[in-house]
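Narrative of accomplishments. A recurring question from our advisory board has been how the design workflow behaves on a single, concrete structure rather than in aggregate. To address it, we present the structure tokens for one chain from the evaluation set, followed by the sequence designed for it. No filtering or post-editing was applied between the two.
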């Protein structure tokens, strides 16, 4: 009887050792956080600037980061329906606020303010804007869809602020986002666009064509401030890492870089 008890005890001890060894070889929760990707949903206007910030950071450029790009409205809908994002860089404040109110996100902070520009901007067109508050365009005008993209909403507000009796265009062409609105103009499918300054700077840097510098920054008092907020998804398992990334984007060095890429720093943006 004693021998049987000893054998059973030995078996239990052996199983305990095996389980302990098995657990020791599994990555811990912190190890998983370090090796899994940080998934960031980013409004199309901010994709290029954010990519630049990441690429120029010795730390973040070595981290696994997945960028999901689209209009703020599309990304908002995806996150609302359970998309596995850790962070959402919206081009407005309204959608991040709505996500917080619906308890789908938290830690909302402003990270930049966008600039609306006219492209192309021949001198006679700019003079008409400055002297008579009119925009006389012969052809199609491209903007982002106001229902999906904050830059489109800002463009619509700007149009409404003009002297409409002298505001002429054949057709208003809507892009799914501000990048597509730019593509309409760049391809000749629209003659003029109301776009994000960051998109023109992106084109100038990457395509090196001086025509992309021919834009006019529109007076900011003619449209609602394009304050851009970021939130952390409540479903994220990497909230601490996500907050570190927000801190990086809001840092002085990053804000100085964003100022050269078509944005007003957050300390100059109305909160």
């Amino acid at each position: 009887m004693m021998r049987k008890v000893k054998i059973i005890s030995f078996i239990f001890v052996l199983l305990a050792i095996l389980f302990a060894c098995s657990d020791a070889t599994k990555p811990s929760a912190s190890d998983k956080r370090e090796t899994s990707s940080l998934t960031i949903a980013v409004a199309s206007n901010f994709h290029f600037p954010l990519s630049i910030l990441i690429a120029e950071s010795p730390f973040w450029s070595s981290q696994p980061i997945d960028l999901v790009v689209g209009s703020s409205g599309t990304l908002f809908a995806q996150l609302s329906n359970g998309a596995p994002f850790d962070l959402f860089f919206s081009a407005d404040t309204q959608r991040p606020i709505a996500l917080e109110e619906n308890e789908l996100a938290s830690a909302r902070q402003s990270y930049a303010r966008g600039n609306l520009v006219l492209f192309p901007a021949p001198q006679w067109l700019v003079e008409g804007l400055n002297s008579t508050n009119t925009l006389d365009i012969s052809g199609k005008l491209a903007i982002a869809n106001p229902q999906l993209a904050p830059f489109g909403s800002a463009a619509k507000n700007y149009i409404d602020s003009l002297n409409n009796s002298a505001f002429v265009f054949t057709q208003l062409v809507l892009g799914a986002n501000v990048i597509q609105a730019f593509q309409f103009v760049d391809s000749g499918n629209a003659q003029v666009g109301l776009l994000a300054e960051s998109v023109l700077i992106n084109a100038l840097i990457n395509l090196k064509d001086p025509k992309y510098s021919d834009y006019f920054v529109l007076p900011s008092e003619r449209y609602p401030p394009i304050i851009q907020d970021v939130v952390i998804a409540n479903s994220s398992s990497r909230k601490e890492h996500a907050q570190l990334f927000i801190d990086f984007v809001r840092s002085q060095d990053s804000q100085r870089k964003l100022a050269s890429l078509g944005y007003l720093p957050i300390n100059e943006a109305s909160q």
